[in-house]
Fold:
Amino acid sequence: MSARSTGMQPAAPGGIAMGPRDEKLVPYASQRVAYWYFVSALALFVLQIVVGLWLAISYAFTIPQSVVDVLPFGMTRAMHTNLLVLWMLLGFMGGAYYLVPEEAEREIYSVKLAYFQLIVFLVTGVAALVGFTFGWTQGKPLLEIPTPLDFIVVVGALIFLFNVAMTVIKGKKTAILGMLLGGLTFLALLYLFGMPFYRNLSIDWFYWWWVVHLWVEGAWELVTAAILAFVLIKITGVDRRVVEKYLYLETALFLFTGLAGTGHHYYWIGAPSTWLWIGGIFSAMEVLPIIAMVVDTFLTQRRHGVVIKEKVVWMFALGTAIGHLVGAGVFGFAHTLPQINYYTHGSQITSSHGHLAFFGAYGLLNLTMFWYAVPRLRGVSRFKASLATWGFWIMCLSILGIGIAMGIAGVIQTYVERVMGESFMTAQGYMQLWFKVVLFFGVFMLLGVIVTFWYMMTAKQTNEER
Ligand code: HEM
Ligand code: HEM
Ligand SMILES: [Fe+2]
Structure:
């Protein structure tokens, strides 16, 4: 019998192979597309962290110019952040391809298109990384990839949206699917605003934030709500209507506060001063839906007294809710009022929040979905939680260490540079120690990610609870 007819994947080196499909675990054959999205995402995540270590080294030590010439900070920073965006988008897409068939109760419209689209994104990603080494960049932080590559991304995104939409149109419609499709469409539309270059820099930044802020504090929240709702319904067995009711409420609040909250980026770019008020008030309110989400996640379990069998997935789901609260809620709120942001703007305090929020909210969200789907795709229904738990705590404590150390560096920077009025480099001298701490935790972060990736790909079937 050939590998194809048994549904087996040929074994890949390093044990990264799917194994035969168990129809009870993975009801639709086309869900298996998601596996390659997840594997690619995790590999890029490892690469992102490796580059992150180099960034920390650049701050912690004085590097000889000859090395800086080869690996300049600007280039490697662009790699770190673009790898971040790419792996997270691939994670969301994989998540969508995994959940859509189960929700719509039919196979994905076109599996071929789904694979083609993955290749399009990966090739574009590699081209972008190689391009950065030759200085081929658009220069907008997080969205550095040059316009010709942007067009390829748009084509990839259109194929993705078409494929997901056709599946939904032809299948069953649920609130989760509506939310997911809405979020993904919003996400893709916003990307277009970052593409043109406006000669007036204030206007250029104005629209740049439409992508950066409205992604993480708008569109991605919708996608997150849909993915989290799907996973929570599956692992808690709580009635769909209960989860969906809160989904609507929280999402409405997210959109209401998040849209106007964009103003917290318009304080110092030359936009009218009314944004100081709008941004300050609405972005401070953004914490409310985040708190609601955390409370709701706890209540979901308490209200119904459900015993959760999938401990690993539940741990990551709880981590997402708490990470969201700490990284986005607490650390975001800390510098969102104009009176404070006046001093902290663009300092390491921003970077500290960026790390805690991105990992806490979207890193853990993606890993929640990966931990739900990947063992199933590998034909594993129960596995030992131990190494997954280790991975979780190593990653969470390391990112907390990184965030706190960057935060302290940021307070020093703010004080020395903006209160005392000393030069940029004087402040950097005082910050170096704290970047050595960032580097220390960074090494553990890499370890946590490798343990997680490795165990997710190799965890064996046991009779113990997972
Ligand atoms: C999960 C959601 C969030 C993520 C992933 C996130 C991520 C980020 C990142 C990466 C930046 C830096 C952008 C740059 O300058 O290059 C940033 C800036 C900022 N974020 Fe967030 N954020 C989130 C939610 C929030 C929330 C809810 C608030 C307010 C309550 C907030 C307040 C801010 C502020 C004020 C800045 C600008 C800092 C400055 O002036 O330098 N963020 N965020
Ligand atoms: C080994 C672990 C890591 C280290 C040592 C590290 C280090 C750094 C450094 C030094 C910067 C440059 C900050 C600047 O421009 O001054 C940076 C930027 C950034 N990193 Fe990391 N990073 C790590 C992991 C991560 C992870 C896991 C995430 C998210 C999931 C992340 C997200 C970001 C973001 C969003 C920025 C841009 C921040 C901003 O615009 O202010 N990094 N990182
Ligand atoms: Fe924002």
